[in-house]
Amino acid sequence: MTIKVNFEVTDTFGGEANYAWVKRGSKEFKHQPTQLQMVRALKQFAGLQNVRCSKDDYGDMIALYPVNQCIVAFATVEY
């Protein structure tokens, strides 16, 4: 069974997702991904590999807020 994780990267306004522009994609995992695997895949998708980010965990969704940038990146598990 494969698990699909959807990615979104968008701009922010006032610290909230604004969606004036958005980049979407997805990745399939052969098993339930760990939180670290999801964060690494999201950072690679968003081009944030060496950028410090704060993370919010909502269970089946992770939000990354890069420091000193006006963007947010989301990873959502699709069951």
Description:
With 79 residues, the protein is an alpha+beta fold. The protein has one domain. 15% of the residues lie in helices and 56% in strands. It has one helix and five strands, in the order E-E-H-E-E-E. It has one helix at 35-46; strands at 3-13, 16-29, 53-57, 61-66, 71-78. A five-stranded antiparallel β-sheet has the order 2-1-5-4-3, with helices on one face. The longest helix has 12 residues, at 35-46. The mean pLDDT is 96.
Keywords:
alpha+beta; 5 strands; globular
Write the layout of secondary structure elements.
Elements: E1 3-13, E2 16-29, H1 35-46, E3 53-57, E4 61-66, E5 71-78
Antiparallel strand pairs: 1-2, 1-5, 3-4, 4-5
Distance between the termini: 10 Å
Beta-strand residue fraction: over 45%
Helical segment count: 1
When the domains are counted, the total is: 1
Shape: globular
Query: How many individual β-strands?
Result: 5
* C-alpha Rg (nearest Å): 12 Å
User: Which residues form runs of ≥5 with pLDDT under 50?
Assistant: none
What's the main sheet like? Answer: 5 strands, antiparallel
Helical fraction = 10-25%
Structural class computed from helices and strand pairing: alpha+beta
Which strands sit side by side, in order, in the main sheet? 2-1-5-4-3
**pLDDT averaged residue by residue:** 96
Order of helices and strands, N to C?
EEHEEE
